[in-house]
Amino acid sequence: MFKMLCFACSLATSTLVFGQAQPAVATQMHMGAAEAAVRSARAELNAALTNRDLAATAKYWLPDVSTLGSDGSLWVGRDQNVKGFAKIFNGNSFVSGRRTPDKIEVATGGPKEAAETGIWQWRERVKNQVLMYGGRYLVMWQLVNGKWRIRSELYVTTSCSGGTGCL
């Protein structure tokens, strides 16, 4: 797709998409609303992790969601993700988890998708230690029936602290 956009130009500037002029301000406002909706979903998902609320977490997963964990585990499908998180939430090792987005990029045209990248943190009890894992993540969102839902997630561990369990 060929697209030229001048953010520094006046409000009268247009965006050229497939040869049709569209007001730049309207395009920016639309993308801003989509980004805000994804950020709102992320905030709700972080609250669900804090509260160990599986139903609030699972409502954001598409039926064929795939999650590639930092340990190399692959969960495919909502059912497998629900099973995995139920085990985490009902176990004694999970302390807390959080994802903090750095950037959310919303697709301009074509399928309504968004890419969320950021930093994740996870705390868990391992024997008598509380380990803090962290790293980078990438989430693929899709707009389905007017709601942003997760198609896939990828987590990479770049740090661990808190004890010998990190070795």
Notes on the protein architecture:
- This protein is an alpha+beta fold and 167 residues long.
- The protein has helices at 24-51, 54-58, 78-90; strands at 3-4, 14-17, 20-23, 61-68, 74-76, 94-106, 113-126, 129-144, 147-161.
- Strands 5-4-9-8-7-6 form a six-stranded mixed beta sheet. Strands 1-2-3 form a three-stranded antiparallel beta sheet.
- Mean pLDDT is 84; it is low at 1-29.
Tags for this entry?
167 residues; alpha+beta; 3-stranded antiparallel sheet; globular; disordered N terminus
β-sheet strand percentage: over 45%
Give the termini separation: 47 Å
What is the number of beta strands?
9
- What about the largest sheet? 6 strands, mixed
Question: How much helix, percentage-wise, in residues?
Answer: 25-40%
Structural class: alpha+beta
Low-confidence stretches: 1-29
Report the radius of gyration as a whole number of Å: 19 Å
Adjacency order of strands in the biggest sheet: 5-4-9-8-7-6
Average pLDDT number: 84
Please state the overall shape, judged from the principal axes of the Cα atoms.
Answer: globular
Q: Give me the number of helical elements.
A: 3
Helix-strand string: EEEHHEEHEEEE
